[in-house]
Amino acid sequence: MKVLLTGAAGFIGYHAAKLLLAQGHQVIGVDNLNDYYDVALKRARLAQLNKLPNFEFHALELSDENCLAAFQSYGITHILHLAAQAGVRYSLDNPRSYVKANVAGHLEVLEFARHCDTLEHLAYASSSSVYGERAGGPFAETDDVRSPASLYAATKLGGEMMAESYARLYNIPQTGLRFFTVYGPWGRPDMAYYIFTQKIFAGEPITLFAPDEMRRDFTFVDDIVSVFPKILTTPPKKGHAIYNLGNSQPNTLMQLVDAVESACGRTAEKIMKPKQKGDVSSTFADISAAQRDFGFAPRTVLSEGVPAFVAWYRTHFNV
Fold first, then answer.
1. Domains annotated on the chain, with CATH
2. Measuring CA to CA, which of 138, 203, 288, 300 is 20 to 30 A from 242?
3. How does DSSP classify residue 128?
4. Contact 121, 232 (CB under 8 A)
């Protein structure tokens, strides 16, 4: 495969690139290297990828009109579109950045795909956030998702609808991937497990928002990316499909805290606060479709994945 990978300097993008390159595929990575979180971490990921054969990187703003036009001559066979403005809480103060990245940026990828004669399949990142606030679970791809709890969720849902329309109009095979709270080494500094680790090693208290209410389907990054090659080489039979990719074993927020404290070997001082706007109480993936079609089988539990992250953190930051 010759893969155009957007968000190559991002957390999941970095791990996806490593796996695809290890399997002998060519990866053309693009990223705008924005400052939503520390750009040094993104550059450090890129430094690792640039050591590997068959990797080529281009810094560009994905929302710019025709920004991908130069790649029409590359013979791209597959697109893995992971670039996005992530984070629920950030969307409360910076809504335009979400429309720019997740709507306008997504449109440019679709327009590139529309005119790419060599393209076989486009897979793109969606989010468990599209399910909104709901009780019980697991959440299935056939569930109603018309009540997003945040602008972030609304833009990811909009991306799914845009993909559906382009699949129908222009016969572009597409697969949307709803990720459920992906974590692991080289992770995003805005996520709870990273913040907890950072503050614990700094001797600072951690803030917990509605800890008795919150639970997440924490999914280790290696389990997620392991299925990408199979997904990319299996275009949907009906033009557009959506799959949940999660661990399907939700953990409470306090279980996450316990796992981080155990891995760090320290106990944190805790500050309790109420639930924040835009947050949903629970996520829980029904992964039966991904199991059936791709053999998706996540194996990493929180007590294994969190220590792997903390070990990386200790090494990367010399803690």
1. 2-180+221-247+284-298 (3.40.50.720)
2. 300
3. G
4. yes
Residues 66, 68, 74, 77: is their CA dihedral positive or negative?
negative
Structure token digits, residue 11: 């957390």
b/e 128-140 (16+ beta carbons within 10 angstroms → b) = bbbbbebeebbbe
| Integer Cα distance of 191 and 236 in angstroms | 32
In the annotation, is 194 catalytic? no
Q: What pTM, to 2 d.p., does this model score?
A: 0.96
Express each pLDDT in 113-156 by its tens digit. 999 999 999 999 999 999 998 878 899 999 999 888 899 999 99
CA distance 162 to 49: 31
Tokens 């990408």 sit on residue: 228
Q: 62 with 30: CB under 8 angstroms?
A: yes
The catalytically annotated residue of 124, 152, 193, 243 is 152
Helix (H) or strand (E) holding 55: strand 55-59
Lowest mean pLDDT among 41-45, 85-89, 140-144, 305-309: 85-89
**In this predicted model, what pLDDT tens digit does every residue of 213-224 receive, in sequence order?**
888 999 999 999
CA distances from 150 to 104, 115, 186 (A): 18, 33, 26
Tokens (6 digits) for 192: 């709870």
The mean per-residue pLDDT over the stretch 244-259 comes to 95
Q: How far apart are CA 15 and CA 24, in angstroms?
A: 15
Rounded to 5°, the CA angle 100-158-277 comes to 80
